[in-house]
Specification:
The complex is a heterodimer of chains A (about 450) and B (about 240).
Chain A (H helix, E strand, L loop, with lengths): L16 H6 L4 H7 L3 H11 L11 H6 L9 E6 L8 H8 L1 H15 L3 E6 L4 H16 L15 E6 L9 H8 L23 E5 H13 L1 H5 L9 E8 L5 E6 L2 E2 H8 L9 E5 L8 E2 L6 E2 L1 H6 L8 E6 L4 H15 L5 H19 L4 H14 L7 H15 L1 H15 L24
Parallel strand pairs in A: 1-2, 1-4, 2-3, 5-11
Antiparallel strand pairs in A: 5-6, 7-10, 8-9, 8-11
Helix pairs in contact in A: 2-6, 2-9, 3-6, 5-6, 6-9, 13-14, 13-16, 14-15, 14-16, 15-16
Chain B lengths: L8 E2 L23 E2 L32 H12 L8 H12 L4 H11 L3 H8 L13 E6 L2 H5 L2 H12 L5 E6 L11 E3 L2 E3 L6 H11 L23
Parallel strand pairs in B: 3-4
Antiparallel strand pairs in B: 1-2, 3-5, 5-6
Helix pairs in contact in B: 1-2, 1-3, 2-3, 6-7
Classes of the chains: A alpha/beta (about 450), B alpha+beta (about 240).
Chain lengths: ~450, ~240
């Protein structure tokens, strides 16, 4: 397969305008600016490209939702990349920053937008410096600014550095943060396309999505749509990490079997180990087991399997790690990162940590798993954003798929702590043998 | 959150014994419940507010001296946005560079330039992990202890890093959420430079390199690492 985003990505000096242009960079922007915004938008729609940040919403549709007419509209590039396991945008921005800048100019032209921001996470200071230099070069060359190349299209582009908060990767939390506030998510609707940054219509897209835009314009939307599957078009950068021999970013055609990515490209688990579970789309995705390795890696196949493609980050966990440890790491992360605005998420994440600690300390009974599962159910869909869901989905799936192992861990921990055998536990009258979820009043 | 660090204490004292007949669930718990200093089991705001004082208003620029360099940086940041308030994170970051941490004085200076209240800026500073409202060293070592790194030994690395930096006031070691470099797990960000994959034995080198002012673990810096995809290549 021919690489699109990763084509000769390690070429020395690709981060400079000179090398990028020598390789044909900014030609797509020139091509786009000779057409009408409507024609550029049609190419994006024809490409069928779905957002690469997590939600997988069609980018062309998102652009078409922006109201028409003369008003302050904004484009925000989401470069917060804080989903655990994800590191693809980092490599793109560090090695080919002009690809992103070019994509932003084209997308802004299609949406009739004249102000753009890149929100990059504060930890990526090296990548931010590279992007700053690239933006400066593009400005000096007249690719950003007023009346770009005589087309009448005007665009300002500002790089905004965050300061370390997972929630700022959520689009409305990101907008609040960009406005100089705490990064608390907002109630939707209104969606950002209608009312976003500074109350103006705002297009928010991920780095990878925007970096693909120049290639869509260069090859034509219909041509791009031929890559991948019918509903998951194009190529995808996949970050593979955890217990594999060759962790790293790989560009794959959507629809490639997951086994080929985990074993073929990333080398599979270390010798003598087997895959126990894997997250197909960052730590927020429900976990899949070794039986699911043959699922094609695309949006719909993974959704059908009960998980999601998310940000395209595969985390592999081998059989040397107890499920409880993985669940504990996850729950603590989400409890720390919950912004505290919505009760189900703020309380649910903290209580999940406490319940997992009960298992570790030998106080738990299998009923704790039922209560924990019911807590997860009550988080999902009940908050302004999906941070709580992002913990509830993988933890819920772990309880469902690894219940025998968790029950064995509960018993082993009770034994260690001398809490007494399970059959001696007083049932407290909740149910006959072991209770289902606690009744909710 | 202020209360979270260094203030945890274990309250193992049993409650008033002898008043009630011991029942099955009064048996001693295997693990005592950890409590914060203010007595609760949940973290909270235990930095008491002085209610006798008036609320702090926007500082008077005439009586709040701000270093020239810092003022210029903040004003330049404010000029980049349609709404100058958007500059609060860059401004606090600049103040943190200047003062070493977001001290009350630093926040007062930002407030004076941005025409905001110190309370507003404190609310922002306490939200973000990289803005620190407690005194810290000039060198920051963030050890990623999230899922991918912890599968490969990040917790041991963090312990080794803390041990290696103990006694060094100018080096602050923190465990951090996913830093977006799971390809070099387990890893750390040393003053913004990503290094990995690390072993616990590297902790001493990191401290030595920092103290000597050298680039940290040059051969393990992420910036030199080629793309893992065999089809990518250098062209």
């Amino acid at each position: 397969m021919k690489k699109i985003l990763f084509d000769r990505i390690d070429e020395p000096g690709l981060n400079t305008l000179a090398v990028y242009e020598r390789r044909g960079g900014y030609a797509a922007m020139r091509k786009a600016l000779t057409r009408t915004p409507k024609e550029v938008l049609d190419e994006l729609l024809a490409s069928g490209i779905r957002g690469r940040g997590g939600a997988g919403f069609q980018m062309g549709k998102k652009v078409s939702f922006l109201p028409k007419g003369d008003m302050d509209k904004y484009l925000v590039c989401n470069a917060d990349e804080s989903e655990p396991g994800t590191f693809k945008d980092r490599e793109l921005m560090q090695k080919s920053p002009h690809m992103l800048v070019e994509g932003i100019v084209i997308a802004a032209y299609a949406g009739g937008i004249d102000r753009a921001f890149i929100y990059i996470r504060g930890e990526y200071s090296y990548q931010a410096d590279i992007l700053d230099a690239a933006i400066e070069e593009a400005r000096a060359a007249g690719y950003i600014g007023e009346n770009i190349l005589g087309s009448g299209h005007t665009l300002s582009l500002v790089l905004h550095r965050g300061a370390g908060a997972y929630i700022c990767g959520e689009e409305t939390g990101l907008l609040d943060s960009l406005e100089g506030k705490r990064g608390n998510p907002r109630l939707k609707p209104p969606f950002p396309a209608v009312e976003g940054l500074y109350h103006g219509p705002t297009l928010i897209n991920n780095v990878e999505t925007l970096s693909t835009v120049p290639h869509i314009i260069a090859m034509g939307g219909a041509e791009y749509a031929k890559i991948g599957t019918e509903t998951s078009t194009g190529t995808k950068l996949v970050s593979v990490s955890g217990d594999v021999k060759r962790p790293g970013n790989y560009e794959i055609e959507l629809g490639t079997p997951s086994r080929e990515i985990i074993f073929g490209l990333a080398g599979g688990p270390h010798d003598g180990r087997t895959v126990k579970l894997w997250f197909p789309g960052g730590s927020s995705a429900p976990v899949l087991t070794a039986d699911d390795l043959d699922i094609p890696y695309d949006f719909d196949s993974l959704a059908k399997a009960g998980s999601m493609l998310g940000s395209g980050a595969i985390i592999v966990v081998d059989d040397s790690h107890p499920v409880l440890d993985v669940a504990m790491k996850l729950a603590k992360f989400y409890a720390h990162e919950s912004c505290g605005k919505c009760v189900p998420c703020r309380e649910g994440t903290n209580w999940t940590v406490k319940m997992l600690q009960r298992i570790e300390s030998g106080e738990a009974t299998p009923m704790d798993l039922d209560i924990m599962a019911s807590v997860q159910e009550q988080i999902i869909g009940n908050c302004l954003c999906v941070l709580g869901d992002a913990m509830a989905m993988p933890i819920g799936s772990m309880i469902e798929k690894y219940r025998p192992e968790l029950e064995a861990q509960i018993e082993a921990a009770r034994e260690r702590a001398g809490s007494g055998a399970l059959e001696n536990v007083v049932a407290l009258g909740l149910a006959d043998d072991h209770a289902g979820p606690m009744p909710v009043h | 959150m202020r209360a979270l660090r260094g203030k945890r204490q274990i309250d193992a004292e049993p409650a008033e014994a002898g008043e009630l007949e011991p029942t099955d669930w009064d048996r001693p718990r295997t693990a005592p419940v950890p409590r914060f200093e203010h007595g609760s089991r949940v973290p909270g705001w235990d930095d008491a507010v002085d209610l006798t004082k008036d609320p702090a208003v926007v500082p008077d620029p005439a009586s709040t001296p701000v270093p020239d360099g810092l003022r210029k940086q903040i004003e330049a940041a404010m000029a980049r946005y349609p709404d100058p308030r958007s500059a609060s994170i860059p401004a606090l970051h600049a103040a943190q560079q200047e003062h070493g941490w977001c001290s009350p004085e630093a926040i007062e200076q930002v407030a004076a330039v941005m025409r905001l209240t110190p309370a507003y800026l404190t609310s922002v500073a306490t939200f973000y992990d990289m803005l620190v409202t407690e005194r810290k060293g000039h060198n920051d070592v963030f050890v990623c202890t999230n899922i991918s790194c912890s599968l490969l030994g990040a917790d041991e690395l963090y312990d080794a890093m803390r041990a290696a930096a103990s006694g060094e006031d100018d080096i602050t070691v923190r465990s951090f959420e996913c830093l977006g470099a799971c390809d070099i797990a387990p890893m750390a960000s040393v003053n913004g430079d990503y290094v990995g994959p690390l072993e616990p034995g590297d902790a001493k080198r990191i401290v030595a390199d920092l103290l000597a002012g050298r680039p940290v673990l040059e051969e393990k810096q992420l910036r030199h690492r080629p793309c893992a995809d065999p089809g990518a290549g250098a062209g």
